[in-house]
Amino acid sequence: MAAFLTSNANISSFLSTLNPTISSFAAAQLTALLPSTVQLQDYACTEKQRPSVAHNYFEPETDLPVIDLASLRSINGSERDKSIKELVRAGKEWGFFRLVNHGLPLPLITGLENQMHKAFALPLEMKERAVSFPNAPWGYVCTARSASVHKPLWQEGITLPLDPHTRKEVVNKLWNDDKEQCKRELSAYINSVQRIARELLEALAVGIGIESEVLSKYLVSGNSSSMLRLNCYPPCPDPSSILGLGAHSDPDLLTILHQDDVGGLQIYRDDRWMGVRPQVGTFVVNIGDVLQILSNGIYTSCNHRVMLNRERPRKSIAFFVVPQPALTVSPLPQLVDTDHPQLYKTFIYSDYVASYRSHKLDGKSNIEKFRLQN
Ligand SMILES: O=C(O)CCC(=O)C(=O)O
User: Fold this and answer.
1) Parallel, antiparallel, or unpaired: how do β-strands 96-100 and 66-68 relate?
2) Could you give the 3-state DSSP secondary structure of residue 218?
3) Quick one: which of 281, 315, 321 has its CA closest to 102?
4) What is the Å distance from ligand 1's center to 318 Cα?
5) Which residue is closest in CA terms to ligand 1's atom 6?
6) Which of 64, 143, 245, 315 to mutate to test the pocket of ligand 1 (most atoms within 8 A of CB)?
7) 145 lines ligand 1 (CB under 6 A)
8) Which strand (E) or helix (H) includes residue 190?
């Protein structure tokens, strides 16, 4: 995930190299953000990664498993138990599912999408104002120019922390007239999605027989570096050889994503790439590497990527449940015994992220580095 690959240190120096005549019409087209030294072919992915399934192709017969949050919240014990079983199955067999009836009102989602539209449409000089958060991922990033990925990504993003104080600083730098409304909308969205994440993590814990707060504690201040990421993938002149986001699994516990109606998210399953049909108002949720490790391999993270198109920018909003960098991560001892030997090493989370960065969006290769050779 791009939010983990970039730190703003690189970006400021890149932005200062931009050709000023190009950047003056930089509204939504990423091509307009590129320095004159960068060629389109610099973005082309390898033959192996080459997009094979168009952004708007969806298999007619197959869709993600659907989890109904209203059933998971039900006071009817058997309805709740059935729903937990479905959630556990989705987490084990797919690592990805669609979440419906989550209770987050559609106007809250579309309101935030409108705010994103305004922010990404700003001239580059203005977006640059929100690049100045040294050594932290917060603020605007033109990931297209990150030197830390082996191929630049065809994407821009705004990363926001849970801490309201720092979040306000980012908003003050990026939004103009409607700052206060934007802060209110972001807070309401983040509070709702945090609650949903807590409920899912509690159910995922209970469903495999562990205490309900063992996973949701990674949302609690002091344990958490969770974040919201606003993604924009501008139209691309060559979507047949350039990816918006290369194949990767997320180095977190859980990601809750809303995608607009454009299409482009694909998951790798049964030896093929499968498009995730956009359904505005529903979330797609995926299990991250850290949950695969904590659960000692019971849950599985899922390899996914983003395809581009020539015509329309695509937007997505991702909430990542992320451990605090200094925390020790290890398979939970309650899930390890002689029949279930420990599958992964014990490590400090910041080491996992450092290794993830060095792997540069290469499917699930990072988690394999942390596997114990039993
Ligand atoms: O934009 C999307 O649909 C997916 C984003 C994603 O995979 C990520 O940020 O890790």
Assistant:
1) parallel
2) helix
3) 281
4) 7
5) 1
6) 245
7) no
8) helix 179-206
Question: Measuring CA to CA, how many Å separate 10 from each of 5, 7, 134, 136?
Answer: 11, 7, 10, 12
Q: What is the pLDDT of residue 147?
A: 47
CB distance 304 to ligand 1 below 6 Å: yes
CATH class, domain 60-369, is: mainly beta
217 vs 246: CA distance, rounded Å = 30
Query: For a pLDDT cut of 70, what percent of the chain falls above it?
Result: 86
pLDDT in tens, 260-316: 999 999 999 999 999 999 999 999 999 999 999 999 999 999 999 999 999 999 999
Map out the domains of the chain as residue ranges.
60-369
Other Cβ atoms less than 10 A from the Cβ of 335: the count is 18
Residue 35 per-residue DSSP state: -
**Per-residue pLDDT tens for 10-19?**
333 333 333 3
- Give the C-alpha distances (Å, rounded to integers) separating 335 from 78, 211, 292, 295, 298: 25, 12, 12, 7, 9
Task: Give yes or no for a contact between 336 and 232, defined as CB atoms under 8 angstroms apart.
Answer: no
User: In the structure, what pLDDT confidence band is assigned to residue 176 with cuts at 50, 70 and 90?
Assistant: confident
Tokens at residue 1, please?
Answer: 């995930």
DSSP string, 42-79: GGPPPTTT---S-TT---SS----EEEHHHHT-SSHHH
Note every long-range contact of 327-331, with CB atoms under 8 Å and residues 24 or more positions apart, other chains counting.
327/223, 329/290, 329/293, 329/294, 330/293, 330/294, 331/293, 331/294, 331/295, 331/296, 331/297
Residue 35 pLDDT class (50, 70, 90 cuts):
low
Q: Amino acid identity of 265? A: L
Comparing CA positions, the residue from 234, 304, 251, 318 lying closest to residue 274 is 304
Please work out whether the CB of residue 1 comes within 6 Å of at least one atom of ligand 1.
Answer: yes
pLDDT tens digits for range 76-134? 999 999 999 999 999 999 999 999 999 999 999 999 999 999 999 888 778 877 776 77
